[in-house]
Write a structure and sequence with these properties.
The chain is of the alpha/beta class. Helix content is about 45%, strand content about 15%. Helix 1 packs across helix 11 and helix 5 crosses helix 6. The longest helix has 20 residues. The radius of gyration is 18 Å and the shape is globular. It starts with a strand and ends with a helix.
Length: about 260
């Protein structure tokens, strides 16, 4: 059976893309799913999260993978050479590198936008789920991810700027769907850093639901525990499995798995 492929995307930075990707993928792994995670953001926060803070050499990362695409030779290494294990059972990673962003314009100019889709098809029988984290911009890497995947999740952090960005983002998704990937489904909007006692987050959440947008439940609470898990370079389900926010991630994953 082919893997479910998901991309977590928002053009606005600071909305929790990497955190949401890492923690939902980690929950999937603890439930026995074979998970592959791709970190397409040169910042590499997701790679840091899964590798315990130990960076990989460029030759083992997506930088070298995409550089091979640009400079193809008979000595090119297979895709499997860039899939590395992580300390978390059932999770494999294709890691980012700070130099990754330098390749984007070159790849785009040579019409390599569909290479990532081909890569996921090559790997889909080895995994149950493939999760992609993206840069906070509609660039070569995020477009490639949206073209390659079946489903997209949008993190939303409950402020007016995020709301404005959301409508632009949904227009961009419609364009990708029309031009490149007719099967792309907006699986849902993930409410992040939610403060239920604050009036504005509650109001924005209610309005998104009233508009008929696919807001997922439960929302993810604001908590210092997530920052502690970042520092420990360990997803919450491993760092503090009994925490309230961990339970919310588990419930959110089960909502997705039941779709």
């Amino acid at each position: 059976m082919s893997a479910v492929t998901r991309v977590v995307f928002n053009q606005k930075g600071g909305v929790g893309k990497s955190t949401i990707t890492a923690n939902l993928a980690a929950v999937a792994a603890t439930q026995g799913r074979r998970v592959l995670v791709l970190d397409l953001d040169p910042q590499g926060n997701l790679s840091h999260y899964f590798l315990g803070g130990q960076p990989l050499p460029a030759a083992s990362t997506l930088y070298e993978f995409f550089d091979q695409i640009l400079n193809f030779s008979l000595r090119s290494r297979p895709t499997s050479a860039f899939v590395v294990p992580t300390p978390l059972a059932n999770v494999s990673l294709m890691a980012a590198h700070p130099l990754l962003g330098e390749l984007g314009s070159k790849l785009e100019s040579r019409y390599k936008m569909y290479k990532l889709r081909d890569t996921l098809k090559e790997l889909e029988n080895d995994f149950d789920e493939i999760w992609l984290d993206t840069p906070p911009a509609l660039n070569f890497f995020s477009r490639s991810a949206l073209i390659a995947c079946q489903r997209v999740l949008i993190p939303f952090d409950c402020d007016e700027f995020a709301r404005r960005a959301l409508y632009t983002l949904m227009d961009n998704l419609q364009e990708i769907r029309a031009d490149h990937n007719a099967g792309l489904v907006l699986e849902g909007i993930v409410i992040n850093q939610f403060q239920p006692r604050a009036a504005l987050p509650r109001k924005l959440l209610e309005e998104l639901v009233a508009e008929g947008l696919p807001v997922l439940s439960p929302p993810l609470s604001a908590s210092v525990k997530i920052r502690e898990s970042h520092q420990a370079a360990m997803p919450l389900v491993a760092f503090d499995p009994r925490h309230k926010l961990t339970a919310e991630y588990v419930a959110l994953y089960e909502t997705l798995a039941g779709k």
